[in-house]
Request: fold
Amino acid sequence: THLADAGFDPVYGARPLKRVIQQMLENPLAQAMLKGEFKPGDMIEASWEDGRLVFKAD
Reply:
């Protein structure tokens, strides 16, 4: 729900949601993958903890 709240704008509706998803989910995940924090085939779970998005490999 945090992404939905952050991506909603009263004027534009949910249109800004794509940018929020890129900034808060896709970009940090890509950075973690480039750093080698995950290996091929990992199932990655994203959760909101202590005010930030956290990725964990299953």
